Amino acid sequence: MRTALFLFLAALLPTQALAANQVALANDVFVERVSTDAQGKQRILLEEPKVVVPGDRLVFVLNYRNAGAQPADKFVITNPLPAAVSFADAGDTRPLVSIDGGRGWGQLDQLTVAMSDGTRRAAQPGDVTHIRWAFQKPIPAGGSGKLMFRGVVK
Amino acid sequence: MTTAPVGGAKHRLPPSCSIFALLAALALPMQAQAAGTRAGSTISNTASASFDTGAGTTTIDSNQVDLLVDELLDVTVDSSNPADVPTTPGATGQVLTFSVTNNGNGVENFVLSTIANAGGDNYDPVVAQIYIDNGDGVFDAGTDTLYTPGANDPELDPDESVTVFVVATTPGTVVDGNRGIVSLVAAAVTGTGAPGASFAGQGEGGGDAVVGSTGADGTDAGAFIVSAATVTLVKSAVITNPLGTADPIPGATITYTIVATVAGSGSVNGLAITDNIPADTSYVPGSITLGGAPQSDAVDADAGDYNGTRINVALGTVAGGQTRTVTFQTTID
Fold first, then answer.
1. A17 shares contact with chain B (CB less than 8 Å)
2. How many whole angstroms separate alpha carbon A87 and alpha carbon A129?
């Protein structure tokens, strides 16, 4: 099945004017809607939702910008996952995740969950409670970028 | 931050590159979700960033995005009868059991209806009533609630189930082995339709109500199987006399044999064989046998008795495919 992509790039721009702070972080959430046209072609639309229903797939987009004159070092972005959202993936952004409310962090494939019988199983995306990106290099003055992750409304 | 900065997050990502990569690989599952986040609740997301521009660590929050969760309309119906329910021709009060589950995320009422003439079977059960279970899972017309469409459509919380009994009559014309199907349909009162259809402002909590993957209606079929039995009696007589011939002369003994054959997949209850002693003959005391076993003439623990005018053998319940053989003797006066 061919998939046609219709992205509203304009909608991906921050909806909020970046704050007066030296560094600003804007948060946008989109819902992926799939429609099938008369030819059976699937179209995926990113819409800015006012309402969602369980099972909807959400795309969280974080735009950051260093508007100050100094590089921003030790730059860390943390997004606690809303309780009603189950983490799906973060594309190729390789975030650190927490599966215990933000106490421990690691790559998802390195984390394990204790089972009631004393064994441990590999952590699943659904276990994720927090997502974090820790930058290894400072954000230079004027630098900006975008991060994203996806989740499903529980 | 206790963990040293690791992870491959790069800043200055090319615009939307990661999103494009993701969407290309996307295969969106339209999975049926169990209830899920309650309709009317709000999903709020806020991220924070911490950094050091030379004056110590600063933390800022992003804007907050709030999403209202709409009501998803989903329902499933499941037959609770593991196999076809046996019935008999003309039987009333025959019960099929179903469970109706609200798979949506809001409180919803469901209209119940039945379909008995969809075909694929041998006869159409006549649905008499639908009852809503009182919680014990056992049908009892005295304690369960008679369902009237529009008047007491069951209201179910998200993930809540209710047991529903469909009470039907089996037509008298059916024969052994006939099968009759009844489907129970449950439909959301708010509305049904294609998945994704929405009813503006009718969702719990003020949002829309959106039809889920089940179409907001569910159905499942239960079936009756006619399990009937028929009884055939064959009576024969053998005469012996003191002369060693088969002539029916006075003093001759007549041995009657009655074979009862039960046919069909069902069984007969309370089967009894009764035969009057013919005029001008006398019953031979103690001559009743059942399957070769002698029976006493008294009404007692064994099956046979003689009351002065007739013999009687109580066979009780006999399943299809079985036979019972009764004999007794008389003498010609």
1. no
2. 8
